[in-house]
């Protein structure tokens, strides 16, 4: 496995409510997983699936993200309306949360970092039963999320 950036197509993305939208132009990027404690807390999850691109390839539409300095070297961006975590930013790089990217984006992690904080229970995932969402639940849920990507 290589950790060199790979070429990816242009993609779009945004937050749950649709107030924040962005476009990432085609070019090199790197998909990875971060298990560090900061990413766990920032996402409220076991790890953060991140797509790293140069800031010069990111174009914003709609509302501006709100940022919080999660460390002395980075900012975390999120939607001030719905709270969706969007990215980790350094001076010249954005690392977007994979769930914010268009569903057809070819996100294929190239590496994993922060392994010192990786949750051991992740090892059991391949052996757990898997199922789709129950149709009777889908029939009554009315989503308030944006219909865009």
TrEMBL record:
Q: What are the recorded GO MF terms, alphabetically? A: carbon-sulfur lyase activity; metal ion binding
Q: Which UniProt keywords apply?
A: Lyase, Metal-binding, Zinc
Question: Which lineage do the record's taxonomy fields give for this organism?
Answer: Bacteria, Pseudomonadati, Pseudomonadota, Alphaproteobacteria, Rhodobacterales
Respond yes or no to whether keyword Zinc is given for this record: yes
| Residues annotated as domain CENP-V/GFA | 11-111
Taxonomically, the superkingdom here is: Bacteria
Question: Member of which family?
Answer: Belongs to the Gfa family.
Record organism: Thioclava pacifica DSM 10166
Instruction: Return the InterPro entries for the record.
Output: CENP-V/GFA, Mss4-like_sf
Protein name, per record: CENP-V/GFA domain-containing protein
């Amino acid at each position: 496995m290589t950790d060199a950036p790979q070429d990816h197509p242009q993609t779009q993305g945004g937050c749950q409510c649709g107030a924040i939208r962005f476009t990432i132009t085609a070019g090199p990027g790197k998909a990875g997983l971060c298990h560090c404690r900061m990413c766990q807390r920032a996402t409220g999850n076991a790890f953060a699936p991140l797509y790293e691109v140069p800031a010069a390839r990111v174009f914003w539409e709609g509302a501006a993200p709100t940022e919080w300095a999660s460390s002395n070297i980075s900012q975390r961006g999120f939607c001030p309306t719905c709270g969706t975590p969007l990215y980790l930013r350094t001076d010249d790089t954005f690392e977007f949360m994979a769930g914010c990217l268009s569903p057809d984006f070819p996100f294929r992690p190239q590496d994993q970092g922060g392994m010192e904080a990786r949750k051991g229970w992740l090892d059991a995932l391949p052996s757990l039963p898997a199922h789709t969402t129950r149709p009777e639940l889908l029939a009554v849920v009315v989503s308030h999320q944006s219909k865009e990507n």
